[in-house]
Every structure is written in C-alpha cells, then in structure tokens.
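Illustration 12: Nucleoside hydrolase.
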Amino acid sequence: MAQHKVIFDTDPGVDDAMALLFLDLHPDIDLLGITTVFGNATVETTTRNALFLKQLWNIDAPVARGAGRAIHPDRIEGPPPTFVHGDNGLGNVAGVPETVSIEPDPRPAAQFIVDIIRANPGEVSIVAVGRMTNLALAIALAPDIVDLVKQVVIMGGAFDVPGNLSPAAEANIIGDPEAADTIMTAPWKVVAIGLDVTHQTIMTRAEMAEIAEVGGPKAQFLSDLSQFYIDFYSHVINDGMFVHDSCAAVYVVAPELFTMRRGAVRVSCEGIAVGQTIQKPDGTFFPPGPWDGMPSQDVCVEIDASAVMALIKRTISGR
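Figure caption equivalent — predicted structure in token form:
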C-alpha cells in the first residue's frame, strides 16, 4: 500500500519526465495528480507533454493545466529554453505529437490542488519542480490549505552556491520570484532541494543506457528523450546530466538521504539579485529585517548522492 500521496507540479521538461516516471513507478507513492506550469516550455507545451507521458506510460493520475505566466503583472517571461529541453520540451525526441487524444482535468491547476488537498487533509505532499506560480495561486484561492498540506517539496533555489540563470538565482525561482517568496513565507512545511545538492547528482549516458536495457519501453523512451539534455550539459559534465527534479521526488520516500538546515527563507524580487533565495538560519541574530516573524523552512545542504542515484536507477529500471 502506498504510503505517500503526491501532487506533482511540473513543467516537462526532460528532468521532469524522469521525476514523473520515478513517482509513478515507486511502490510507496500514490500519485494523485499532475499539474502543469510554464517554464521549460510554454504551458501549452508542458501540458501537452504531461498528457503525452501520461498516455504513453499508462499513468492513472489526472493532469490539470496551470499558469502560463508569473503572478506579478509586470514580470515578463523570456522565450523557453529550447537549447536545454528542445523545441518540444522533451529533448526533440521523435514521436511527440502536436496534440494528444486525452483532455486535461477541467479544473485549473490551482483549483485542482485545493480540491485534492481538502479531500486528503494532512496527507498530501506537493512536489513542485517548476515555477511556484500554481501554488501561490492556490494559496490565494484557499488560504486554509496551508494547514492541510503535509509538506511542499520544491526543486528550486541556490542558497550557498551560484545560480544557473544568474550568479544569484536558480531558474525555477527567478521565473516567478514573487510566487516563490509566497511559498517560502507561508506557514506550511517547505523543503527546498536546490542547486547546492542537485549538482552532485549526475546520471551518465552509460548509466541511462543500462537503465533502458533492463527497464523496458518506459525506461527506453526516457533514455531517448534525455540524449539532447545530456548533450547540453557537455560543457560542465563528462557525458552526463544533472537529475535536479528527481531529487525532490526522492526526498518524499527517503528523507534520511538529505541533511537539512532550518531557518526563514526570503526571495529577492527586485534588483540585480532578483530570484536569489536567502535563508536566515535558526540561531543566528541580525538587526530587524524581512526574515523576522517568518516560518522556519528546511533547506537541503548535504545529500547522499550515490544513494539517491541508486534509488532513482533501481526504481526506473524495475530492479
């Protein structure tokens, strides 16, 4: 019997696809829903990709379309990073249709999140690996959900390391910093799995090929769509890729593989450091400031990377 009920908030996205397959295949996960958001591609494309993967991989969870832009009206989204995830958002892999034959859930993602949480009080972990826009909209729609969520596990932020979209900011946070600040300062449990540790989790092309060989058609398709992403990372990794989003999925079932630091977190929403995630660790003292009175959240500062990778490979390959 599955021990963890999960909503997966995502912008597929190559590493999102790996995390989705992990969540669907892990025996302790009950995947209640998939909500889409803009980011790695437009929300039209990320929703198509989520529906396509749901159909291809026979995933039972419904898909709800989410936000297509940031919550701040003046925040202008740049073009999707096609050089990272391909023109179709799934590494330009062959076989992804322009449209799919199944429809998303009729509810917007924010309403879907509210309804699922209220139907499962205290039981749902939200695993959010894209912009935090849907979650911020859900809080605005129904503030009571902050008392009903088990935890919010995000892939996002760069706390003690440089970002990947600027020296200060990680992509998911800078894409909607106001939403991210809302999530970090809400009185619910947030676990932030950022670049501090995801840059330690690398899957090589050879490892992906081994998974595909034993994991069947699902793992083979994941391997196929990952090749473009691996090529992109060739400037920093020797024939491999970071598995950012899967780290957040792994935390749900194996939190003992992560070392956390508690403290209030704020997100810079203006200036040259827009999108920067800044934690005031518990037990540190400063003059009065924006962290005062904010809830302490968990930021991951260390990871057992080899154990995390072993669990991902074991789950996806079915070993």
